[in-house]
Amino acid sequence: MDIFTLSSLVIITISCILLWKKKSSSGFNLPPGPPSLPIIGNLHQIIGKSLSHTIMNMSQKYGPIILLHFGSQPFVVISSSKLATQAFQTHDNVLCNRPYSRNLKRLAFNYNDIVFSPYDDHYKHMRKTLVVDFLNSRMTKSFKKVLDSELKRLIDSLPFDKEVHFDKMISNFMVDYVCKIVAGKSYGDVTLGGKKLIDMLHEMAILFSGSFSEMFPSVGWVLEDLSGWTRRVDNHMTNFDALIGKMIDEHIDHTNADEKDLIDVCKSSLTREEMKAIMTNVFNGSVDTSYLTLVWVMSMLVKNPRVMHKLQAEIRSHSGKKPRLDETDTAKMMYLKNVIKETLRLHGPSPFLITRHCVEHIQIGGYDILPGTNVLICSRGIAKDPTVWTENVNEFYPERFENRVVDQFDMTPFGGGRRSCPGFNLATSTLEVVVANLFNNIDWKPPNGMRNEDLDVEEDEEGSLLVAKKTPLYLVPVKHNSQA
Ligand code: HEM
């Protein structure tokens, strides 16, 4: 036995004894979980792996609530609908904070934002501004016009019978649409520091996904400085701040109530720093989440022609002679709604909700959760909870939603409780309208004679908050002849 193996065995044995002693002497009934090592905790069991798959495997062994340590920080991970209900209903007031870290503070414009801000008066003011002033019915009516004109541009530019890089096409589409509702015009082609807005948003999803200061609050900053992470965050924030600042500086005030954008509605009530933070939340909240979901919808449909043909039939039976479909059309398309729900169940872009920070001693599932513990809700685990989803849980089968009442926490792609996603309605209606238009007069097939069922749908979760498809999606659009 070499010296490395011997010392690893000694460390593992000592940590098991320490952990056992700590548990039995604490007097608390802490959730079960795999043994952790000193200093790094359970990091060796998760680094370089798909976190959601690792957690779901651990849950099969330890149950739907487990205790892990990421560095020095305790994390309780919940992956069942029943326990998520307890977290969001009984303990929402104790779990509505986010953990603090130097990394998040920098990325969240000094916590001027909504997503990572502590649950305080400033947070409530910012969330109210987003929900009441931006996501109200008058504003969302004007977003529909923007969406319609962007859809026209997208469909008119499709190279029929030729391969398209669907991810690229649909992410550019989402960037243009969101830029227009945020800043009145598109900034999709502007490059700063060699990066476009879409590249900056991808980078942000990586930077938000966790760093040393979240795992080692007292010394993490040293590791961040030494590893180059701080420089990476600074470079990113310099470019991103400049781009968002440019949007504010170049903004033209819209006097017409039908054309207002986010900058118009928050200019008078927010500081410049708060405006940058709220714009960042809308960009981060809308672009990557929506375009990744659209890539998954298209992938799952093309891979499952039975579902695709049934959806096409529904869309085309409601479309009449309209060139483009809107929300009044999609309101009648029940199968379309189920297709989107099923895609979010299997491939929701956020397999975990954004981390909550427990501020009081509570109990979930009979286990003690102590103040200072971070709580991660595994929405992917909930979406496959065998006590809720009993039949062919891994199959793409939108019919499972027919004649079924889905309880609030049976699936949680948009989170739950008071920190749930405020963009839920805008996001789902946008997804429905885009998919309806992509299939109204268009058929889609895989390139180079590939069989539909051979389309690859492997996930890539490493190093980002969001799950993407591992390989890019290439598809061939074909004009559908409605007379045929
Ligand atoms: C498919 C699209 C979307 C998905 C899957 C999604 C998902 C999520 C999830 C999982 C959370 C965390 C909830 C929690 O911690 O319980 C969240 C929070 C949030 N989302 Fe979304 N989102 C989407 C679209 C949007 C849109 C369109 C906006 C804005 C217009 C938005 C803005 C936000 C904000 C501001 C938060 C933070 C809420 C808070 O901390 O109070 N999201 N979203």
Automatic annotation (TrEMBL):
Gene3D superfamilies: Cytochrome P450. It is found in: Membrane. It comes from the Eukaryota. One of its GO terms (cellular component) is membrane. GO terms for biological process: sesquiterpene biosynthetic process. One of its GO terms (molecular function) is iron ion binding. Its main location: membrane. Its cofactor is heme. Keywords: Heme, Iron, Membrane, Metal-binding, Monooxygenase, Oxidoreductase, Transmembrane, Transmembrane helix. Heme binds at C421. SUPFAM superfamilies: Cytochrome P450. Belongs to the cytochrome P450 family. This is Cytochrome P450. It comes from Mikania micrantha.
